[in-house]
Specification:
The protein is α+β, with helices and mostly antiparallel strands. It is 14% helix and 22% strand.
Length: 74
């Protein structure tokens, strides 16, 4: 569980991507992501609008932009 430290945000260009989790992560997941650099809780249900593509899995710590990076395991 690594933090995206080398991926630039497509909105602001800063390399500040962090894992965005949807649903109810377990305490073990939260602790593991905390040790790896952090995580953002996206909400109870992930957005599933197929017209917009897959739900965001990354959030920029600099500007707050959310996007799908595909860098995280399911």
């Amino acid at each position: 569980m690594a933090v995206l430290t080398k991926v630039s945000c497509p909105m602001c260009g800063e390399p500040e991507g962090i894992r965005l989790l949807w649903g109810f992560p377990s305490l073990d997941e939260l602790e593991a992501y905390g040790r790896a650099g952090g995580v953002v809780i996206g909400g109870y249900e992930s957005p599933t609008d197929a017209a917009d593509g897959p739900p965001a899995d990354t959030e920029c710590r600099h500007c707050g932009h959310r996007w799908f990076s595909g860098e995280w395991p399911s």
